[in-house]
């Protein structure tokens, strides 16, 4: 006799209810993720886009939850919680070093 398969409810790593309150809700995704092809954006355009995206994040009431979600999920694309992909990687590494030292 086979054991019945029980399915566990998948729970998000971080509470994603914050999405409804995010300042970026309704904004164009391109503001946070850029054009599909990186070559389609000049460095000056990218810098300006990132600055505008970070401005949206700066006034967001759920900025820290968004950043934590990106860090927990391992996101490597787009501006999340006011952090660029490079800044997300740096923060992950910083936390990893901190855990290793503890």
Short description:
The protein is an all-alpha fold and 102 residues long. The protein has helices at 29-33, 43-58, 63-73, 85-101.
Count of β-strands: 0
Which of globular, elongated, flat, extended, rod-shaped describes the shape?
globular
> Total number of helical segments?
4
Summed over residues and divided by their number, the pLDDT gives a mean of 86
Largest sheet: number of strands, sense, barrel closure: none
Radius of gyration: 17 Å
H-E order: HHHH
Oligomeric assembly? single chain
Description:
The protein has 102 residues and is mainly alpha-helical. The chain has a domain at 18-23 and 41-101. It is built from 4 helices and no strands. The protein is globular and about 45 Å long. The relative contact order is 0.14. Helix content is 48%, strand content 0%. It has helices spanning 29-33, 43-58, 63-73, 85-101.
List keywords for this structure.
102 residues, mainly alpha, 48% helix, 0% strand
Write the layout of secondary structure elements.
Blueprint: H1 29-33, H2 43-58, H3 63-73, H4 85-101
